[in-house]
Amino acid sequence: MMHNIFIQLAEKQLAGLCSFKNSNNSLSVPIEKNNGTEKPTLLMLHGWQDNAASFDVLFADLIKHYHVVALDWPGHGLSEHRHSDNYYHFVDYIDDLHQVVELLSVQNLYLVGHSLGAIIAGCYAAAFPEKVQGIVLIEGLTPLYETTDNAVLRLKQGITSRQRYRQRNATRPKRKMASFEEALNLRSVVNKLSKSDLYPLVERGTETDGEYWYWRHDERLRCDSLYRMAEEHAQALISQIQCPALSIVGHSGFQQLQRKIPERTWFQQLKQVKVTGGHHCHIDSPNDVYRHILTFTQGF
């Protein structure tokens, strides 16, 4: 069983789901042995505009073998939004993650990330190798990068997208839906997943005023980035990941993740497996994803 938890960081409060209960919403992991050895901890990191319940179909199996913590990133799920004068540059999530890892204070920690969460997991493992035993990257591999020739256009487009957001936010009311079912239908169409599979994610990602339903996520998440790494920067980061990495991709997911070069050659230790499904293959094929995670973590 997973429990709601709220984690106070330096500047904001994060929400999440946790397989163990603690007083005062702390992240003190209980000492518990599994077959004579201490249970590892899985810290699960969802993708863009998802939330901790993205991993709901995996929880029942995972908690048999691991302590499990799944976060809602800032601006997602039940977590607080960033302050009104701030936006969502992906490197700031790495700072959020580090604060959570420090609160967990465990030795046997694995990061399991999907999409955006996978990219954050890899960058964190590069910067803090002593904190991470292994990383599982579901439909995500390296930071997004582009040629330096695009730097000026990227900056201009990012600033313009923020201005559009400000104008839209000032003149147009928040999008409303007539029912929870409408929200569920919308996500089902976008993600090409069944409504039953998406129910926990949509439930955690919406709120109601009693008449209408609204998305909880911060609309600023849709603003374009002001900056994107060059290939050399991305490679420099990924090449410093010292722990083993498992890449899980969906057969009909992002095909660029399955390329043999150049990104896969940047890792010191990388194994890639394919499962049935698309970009949310952990929801499409939870049994296979669970089995691959278990085999990976038991291998060392």
From TrEMBL:
The keyword Hydrolase applies. GO terms for cellular component: membrane. Residues 40-175 form the AB hydrolase-1 domain. One of its GO terms (molecular function) is hydrolase activity. InterPro entries: AB_hydrolase_1, AB_hydrolase_fold, AB_hydrolase_sf. Signal peptide: none annotated. It comes from the Bacteria. This is Hypothetical hydrolase/acyltransferase. It comes from Photobacterium profundum (strain SS9).
